[in-house]
Amino acid sequence: MDDDLDDYELFWSTIVSHFQLLSKSVLNWSEISVNLMTIREWIHHLVSIAMRPQTLAALSLILLLALICHTFEYWIKSVIKATVNVTKRVNIGLALVSTAFTTLLPDVDCITRIADNVVEEYKDNCVGVYALQGRRPKMEDKFTYVNDTTHTGIEYWAVFDGHGGDNAAIFVESKLYNAIHKRVEALITKDSVHNHCEKSPKDFCSSDHSDSGLHNGLHNDNKCTANAKSNTNDSSFESLSVASLSKIVTEEVLEIDRQLIIESKERGDVSGSTALIALRIVAQNKLIVANVGDSRGVICDSKGSAIPLSFDHKPQQIKEHKRIKEAGGFIKFNGVWRVAGILATSRAMGDYPLKDTNLVIAEPDILTFHLNDIQPKFMILASDGLWDAFSNEDAVAFAKECLIRVKQSNTTTHTAHEVAKCLVLESYKRGSVDNITVILVIFDTNFDDISIS
């Protein structure tokens, strides 16, 4: 009986506890319903505020400002592009006026009509250089010619076309040949000591030898380069091969570029420079041409044909575009194709902001030529100011005509300089808006056997 009572009490207490829990749940749902009603009222209130004319006007203004900020960069670039196009058209118009004016006054040198222009030149019997500032606000081209056949057995010509300032071109021009000369001289000296010590180690190694010195800068030679017959039996330069010289040039270009980058970062200088370098190994009569950028060389062979000595490094070239893309960069058309929309050449020395990301490199392309096979008449090395107005074939044809005309006049002994000057002035007349530098090297003074067609 007591057990039955206990069971009854337990059952009743369980029922009561369940009802209590149920009542609490009902109360909680009531509170949730109240909260939902409150949220609905707030939403209705916010919608009513949002639909007011004042609110709509404010939102429209905010959206308009956001749109302006988003398209600001595009507008600025469009304005800059339009300005560049207008400038180019003005320059072309000035060039046409200049050409017409020159035609009316053929006896007046167009140089006299270029205010405050920089002209740099070098005159030799068979090597001539003419450099003109042209329509640029500053002269940024540099050049070098060294005839060092006595000590290293090489001739050296180089053109450096600066951009973003002339600091990079000045730096490279002042250091590159000296660096190459030291390497070549060390190679020759090492080979010479080795050979002589093998032949007579006692006599030679006990002698006192010193460096023979270096011809820096422009060095005059009274003979034409190709007509100056070299002694191919001279064992002093046997170690100087095309492969060894090409390796030296490549390594020194990259080393000078490394030094330039360090110095440019310290000064905050973003300038850069192309480099077109030609070296002739006199004893072997072989030519090595190293190119970084869009300066260009061309040679006229015995038949009067134009043989390219280099090929421009342009961002749109398949090889260059692929390299830039793999480095995480892009090219953009802004008048011409440019790396990251900035630089019109894909290889250069300097340009450290683009060099840090490997978008622009200084690795030179090197081509070699056996001059005995080509039998060249002359060679043209020039900055892109010339090639903006001439193709390779046009430049060779124009230079041939100038050579024959100057030779027939018999008024000057500086034939190469006169022809270089003719090329520069003609490219200026044709509308080139860049600095223009031309090095012309005569290898054979007999032009009677080549066609001028």
From TrEMBL:
The entry's keywords: Membrane, Transmembrane, Transmembrane helix
Where are the membrane-spanning stretches?
56-76
Against Pfam families, the record matches this protein to: PP2C
The yes or no answer to whether the keyword Lyase is present is no
The protein's superkingdom reads Eukaryota
One example of the protein's molecular function in GO is: protein serine/threonine phosphatase activity
Ranges for domain PPM-type phosphatase come to: 126-443
The protein in question is named: PPM-type phosphatase domain-containing protein
| Organism of this sequence | Oppiella nova
